Automatic annotation (TrEMBL):
TM region(s), chain numbering: none
Full protein name: Corrinoid adenosyltransferase
Known EC number: 2.5.1.17
Domain of life, per lineage: Bacteria
Enzymatic reactions: 2 cob(II)alamin + reduced [electron-transfer flavoprotein] + 2 ATP = 2 adenosylcob(III)alamin + 2 triphosphate + oxidized [electron-transfer flavoprotein] + 3 H(+); 2 cob(II)yrinate a,c diamide + reduced [electron-transfer flavoprotein] + 2 ATP = 2 adenosylcob(III)yrinate a,c-diamide + 2 triphosphate + oxidized [electron-transfer flavoprotein] + 3 H(+)
Boundaries of every Cobalamin adenosyltransferase-like domain copy: 3-168
Signal peptide span: none
Annotated organism of origin: Brevibacillus panacihumi W25
Localization per Swiss-Prot or TrEMBL: Cytoplasm
One Pfam family this sequence matches: Cob_adeno_trans
GO cellular component terms given for this protein: cytoplasm
């Protein structure tokens, strides 16, 4: 299979089930932003040491990156068509459980945290902001067409999880968090 098809050379792309739309269509922007977030998560993971202590987190992110691909597939599926792997409330609950596990050992938040610290932490913060943008785009699509409500919830919870992971990385790496001072 060739990597290039030349079908997008005129500014259109195909949604799932072959529906052609402009490359700037809201659905394309939404699932493209999910793809961008997934890539940023991969970048953040690549900045973590390849040691045993990060094995469990990598396993959780393997599942999350797969689910994020499924979120993109849902957003790339035209209204009224079936999607193979729908996001569910159980997927959202999984993220909530992971948030609770990681945040249990973190210092209480008393001020806004500035993104940064360890390079992996900073990269998880970037991923968080890209997921927030994907969420905004998915909400926009949902104002025009039907979108699985669990997709928006999943993106919302994923950005929360990425925030907690960024804090976790700084804590584990012994890197102080920087707080907003007014």
């Amino acid at each position: 299979m060739k990597i290039y098809t030349k079908t997008g050379d005129k500014g259109e792309t195909s949604l799932v089930h072959g529906v052609r739309v402009p490359k700037f269509a809201d659905r394309v922007e939404a699932y493209g932003t999910c793809d961008e977030a997934n890539s940023q998560i991969g970048m953040a993971l690549s900045l973590l040491p390849m040691t045993e202590e990060w094995t469990q987190l990598r396993a959780v992110f393997h599942m999350i990156q797969t689910k994020l691909f499924h979120v993109g597939a849902e957003l790339a599926t035209p209204e009224g068509k079936n999607v193979g792997w729908p996001i569910t409330d159980e997927d959202v609950a999984f993220l909530e459980e992971e948030i609770d596990k990681l945040s249990a050992d973190q210092p209480a938040l008393t001020n806004f945290i500035l993104p940064g610290g360890h390079p992996a932490s900073a990269a998880f913060h970037v991923a968080r902001t890209v997921v927030r943008r994907a969420e905004r785009k998915a909400v926009h699509v949902a104002t025009q067409e039907q979108v699985n409500k669990a997709v928006v919830k999943y993106l919302n919870r994923l950005s929360d999880y990425l925030f907690v992971v960024a804090r976790h990385v700084n804590l584990q790496m012994g890197t102080a968090e920087q707080y907003l001072h007014e």
